[in-house]
Specification:
With 336 residues, the chain is mainly alpha-helical. The protein has one domain. It starts with 26 loop residues before the first helix and ends with a helix. Keywords: Membrane, Transmembrane, Transmembrane helix. This is TLC domain-containing protein.
Length: 336
Amino acid sequence: MPDIDVPGDMHIKHTPLTPLSKLSPYSGLILSIVLVVLFLIKQYVLEGSLLQRCYGPFYTCLNDRDRRGFLNHHVAGATKVLILIVGVYPFIDVAFRNGQLEDRYAPGSSVRLGDVLVVCTQALCGMYIFELVYRTRISAISTMHHLGTILVAEAAIAISLDLTREKDATIEFILCTVWGAFDIVCELLPHIAIILYRVYPTSHLFLSRLFLFAAITTFVGTVCESLVIFYLFGSLWSQWQLAFKIVTPLLHCAFSATQLHGSRIFYFMWKKQERLLAEAMVGADEESAGGAVNGETKEGPLKDVTAVETTLAGATPKEVKKEDVAESEVRAGDVL
């Protein structure tokens, strides 16, 4: 089929109704392979030795629930990075440029853009299924987000197998890729933030900046996602069937609520780190003043915040206050 040369923002309106990929009928097999690969990596690479070698006591001191969450953030983060690297070109070309799903992924290649997007979709679904099964504790809102993502993505591929009845199957799949792209970008930093929180639990200045940045990026990402989704949805209004005109806005509101909830959690974690940092500064000032009175030191208050954190961070994760760990774990477990 010849390329359709139209402006980028109008491209999706002229997307022809075509099969997504020759791999669509084998989506179940692809998803099964993804789950098997994730299990093998979890069982023989991450749990086998890699995490223990990389983090030492920071990993071995965690209880089973926290260890599962810590490992899952590595699996989810690595999977999203891989999807981002492999799928960024076909996604942008199909959704916003002049590419078609049946175009070649590379010159002379038998792989099509649609093939890559279908595989990436199954990888994202497999990652969420792995998290739902592997983690022992996950919030209700995160559960609904993951289940919704899985069902919507799988339904988008399934309806494309009957194009005679589903006239909006292609544009529905492309809209799902837009959801998935923002989902990956917005949730990648939270994975990294929780990992760093586990490794540096008492680096309050660093964590406060990290959590603030995560809260801002997830909020801004959600706003940008809503603008793009509803722009595309409105542009294609005449092409949607009635069911999609009703369901699509509801699904997007549910996804946006989950991401805004994540921003809210990181906001509270930022405020908590700011409070702990202020307490550390006050404690260091009082200690310095007391030492000067007793003739032990003549140095003034510590001005380097990193030094303050160092004086308080000599403990292992086991020595961190239990209530602080419990509170942060509840919030961190609700982020994704």
